[in-house]
Amino acid sequence: MMKTFTNIKDMQDKCKAWKAEGRRIGLVPTMGYLHAGHLSLVRKARQECDIVIISIFVNPIQFGQGEDFEEYPRDIKRDLELLEAEQADAVFAPSSRDMYPEGYSTFVEVEGSITKKLCGASRPGHFKGVTTVVSKLFLICQPDKAYFGQKDAQQVTVIEKMVRELNFPVNIVRCPIIREADGLALSSRNVNLNSEQRQQAAVLNQALKAAAREIEAGQRDVETVKQGMRKLISAQPQATIDYIEINRAEDLGEVKNLSGEKIIMALAVKFGNTRLIDNLIVEV
Amino acid sequence: MMKTFTNIKDMQDKCKAWKAEGRRIGLVPTMGYLHAGHLSLVRKARQECDIVIISIFVNPIQFGQGEDFEEYPRDIKRDLELLEAEQADAVFAPSSRDMYPEGYSTFVEVEGSITKKLCGASRPGHFKGVTTVVSKLFLICQPDKAYFGQKDAQQVTVIEKMVRELNFPVNIVRCPIIREADGLALSSRNVNLNSEQRQQAAVLNQALKAAAREIEAGQRDVETVKQGMRKLISAQPQATIDYIEINRAEDLGEVKNLSGEKIIMALAVKFGNTRLIDNLIVEV
Prior knowledge:
The structure is a homodimer.
Chain A: E1 3-5, H1 8-20, E2 25-30, H2 36-48, E3 51-56, H3 76-85, E4 90-92, H4 96-99, E5 106-110, H5 119-122, H6 126-141, E6 145-149, H7 153-166, E7 171-175, H8 195-200, H9 203-216, H10 222-234, E8 239-248, E9 262-271, E10 274-283
Parallel strand pairs in A: 1-4, 2-3, 2-6, 3-4, 6-7
Antiparallel strand pairs in A: 8-9, 9-10
């Protein structure tokens, strides 16, 4: 029987008890409005761990001013049904007030270029909000393993660095992007697209795949590859490009020319108010 | 048999094993060069926990430019003998290179006035260094309880706030200041005083006690009480006052007038290059 915890102390006490019994805990941190991408993480956790906890928390401090905190889709009832069907053990759904009580001022931050580029450039403070909430979730739920989707590639890379540097006793498991039939990466935000935007959004994955083919065919110039993607995406009238970047996959470091490295092509594009991200890793 | 760990992973694995056996771990974080104050923490941990770990690490990131990181006294051999005698289970003495490898950039920070006043004002970045290293030590050693001396009153208050806000599953135990016969609070730094400075340093505790008597006698004006301490300390030719402050004991908040609260009188004074701190809590 799946149990829902809204109180931090109750969840933490339960996790302590599970740990004391030697159970291996898997945590899937989410902002809810679950889709097949989230569920693939839950299934992976179910395979690998004794206890599977899903956190559902739309984390206010990772949204900037003017971002879509209010419009972020929520449907806890549906989420609970989906998770029950996946045989999750527990859902942790705390309130903002409990997570960030009056006077709250403690933050975990990965400093440096890794959080300043890509999404960090357009969303200042975003990753500080992410690393703070993930630290809290890790400390409350004490997972042995935590599952994150490769769709938020920079997020996972930042969290891996945080875990390594702060010595969190947690294994980070990176899971592949799940896509719609037309290639659009699953995202809770997709529901906010109108039908025209939804159709045009398929270009993101198409552009990434086209770029991968270009590289496979011998193209080694980063700017040329980025230009190709830019051209394809700009052709969609509803698309406004935030960024298109190519970085070293391992640490998001600079890539001068494409040779002998695993690289990540990552992009963020707005359709109306809805900002979508996608990425593709290529071994050159 | 006490065991010394210098490798982070070895220490963390050992702590995981202890936790899996249901042992309660007590951690005493120190910068070494142990004195009776540290040993009082170790004894308290020995009484309350199954496993007692002492960390010895002169944390470079909590020292500012021009501060005494280099001159900070070190004597690991003597420390280990003292801890062996106290029947400690483990000493964790990592290297700086392992704690902060090349490219390290993850920090835990308690923001706001609590880390900006008192020692935070004269030592910018100090508490960020403290909360970061303490977070790492907690994550490596997974203590149920961690022991800190009241001599570093602001440090304990900041750490308590961090633990509460990040949801660390750790109980912070605050232990009383241990003093020399003439009232000087024990500190590893005392060894850096010359004999004249050492003699004059007794004024710190004398000034705090005189202030407490003044309050007991009915004085309610904060500035008058601070002036009294300032006068006593300035009379010592080697003393240079950094700060003398009176705050609410609980959270170091502002105190307008002395009435019906627990207050903390705290001071920092330099004798030559050696900066000493002391404090006294008074129930008004």
